[in-house]
């Protein structure tokens, strides 16, 4: 039917031209021209409406997306800057001939697993880069200025071993001005506190890998004797009991949620993640992470905290050619550009949950006058596959056998190393919001 109609239309038009009906052709041409102008002005009206209502656009951008495609690369993780605004998390690693402000010899706070220089890492190129946001300047961390700023204040990093990794970097930079004195540690040295006497400034690291109450049956090397028992509806008292004592806090979690765990609510088992030998509902780590983060942010929002609270996103690992247990390694010696290294599926899911939950929370925090900020280090960390200890988590791993099979650490960060840039960003956010 359609083909028949098209055939008759074409035949009529050819006939019209052959008969040279000038008046009809002129009228038809005027009609087409009018339609074209109508379409053009309609499009202009739409464009003008968008340009004249920036407040509507801004309000909509504050709301977390209901659904979106998961980011693959660093360029996709962090949105481009809005006009006139600096996005510290969107940038590039650029060469920095000045190198780190401390070394393994000048800082005593570096734990052996992150002390890549002492452990024999032969290359040093990974030390000579700095993070450079694309549309703004990021000054180097100034320890003198910072300590004056936080005099008589308290700072806490709350989370897992990456938070402990970060606090070492933090202390190393500050120790250029004054050596911190350890005033507390728990039995396993996982939670600790230091004092800078001249400034009455304390820095704490609180071990809370889930931010929620959890029974963990795992040794320091990650060997587990039973499933983790995680209470989705109960926050970890190790930090909630001290919450009101801190002026600044950096919360972080994520990596531990992919481990095998039994989930509880109201002290009753409701399911698990990766427990095939048990007759339990597989809820997935994403379900648990979203649930706990929601509870964490609700707790923060229900407070009247007058200080500054950050939520740091999870950092990606860089295992290549396998996982940590199957010969995976991280042998790269320099940063990559945005787009050259992909997030794993797990890291995509973790980051999506974090951005959605912190997005909702920051809007509510702003309405309540609370100072809650996103500290999104995922993209800039993704571009530093060269910054991990690898086999140099251990002291001189190839001293006896150059071909020794060593389990690589492609999750934590060498010190000094890329993680030092986090301090630069934190100071800028504390000073200028």
Automatic annotation (TrEMBL):
Keyword annotations: Membrane, Signal-anchor, Transmembrane, Transmembrane helix
Stretches assigned to the Trichome birefringence-like C-terminal domain: 138-429
GO molecular function, one term: O-acetyltransferase activity
A UniProt-annotated Pfam family: PMR5N
Membrane topology: Single-pass membrane protein
Main location, first listed in the record: membrane
Transmembrane keyword on record: yes
One annotated Gene Ontology cellular component of this protein: membrane
Positions of the Trichome birefringence-like N-terminal domain: 85-137
UniProt entry tagged with the keyword Phosphoprotein: no
Localisation per UniProt entry: Membrane
Top-rank taxon, per record: Eukaryota
Family: Belongs to the PC-esterase family. TBL subfamily.
PANTHER family on file: PROTEIN TRICHOME BIREFRINGENCE-LIKE 24, PROTEIN TRICHOME BIREFRINGENCE-LIKE 9-RELATED
UniProt-recorded name of the protein: Protein trichome birefringence-like 23
